[in-house]
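Notes from hallway chat w/ T.B., transcribed later so I don't forget. T.B. wanted the structure written out for a chain they're using in a teaching module, and asked if we could keep both sequence and structure tokens in one place. Agreed to drop them here.
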Amino acid sequence: MSKQKKIPLRVCIGCREKLPKKELVRLVRTPENEVVLDTTGKKPGRGAYICPREDCFKKALKGKRLERNLQQPISSELINEIAETLKQEESEL
């Protein structure tokens, strides 16, 4: 018998659902205190995961969950960039 490979689960900070890591978008606060999108899922730094849905992103912003999880304020330019990326991800699904 072959072992079934364990699928890592992460919690979306918007809807609080546990989903497979590959279905979520990772945001990272790098050691240089920059917040960036992590498309590879392997960048060093503090990470937060969010569903590629606009409503989850709005919930995360409204409750300041994104800032709390990354332990840093988020600029409006970055918020716009993340929103555009999530729209693209959502349209691909």
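Follow-up for T.B.: Strands lie at 9-11, 18-20, 25-29, 35-38, 46-50. Might be a good example for the class.
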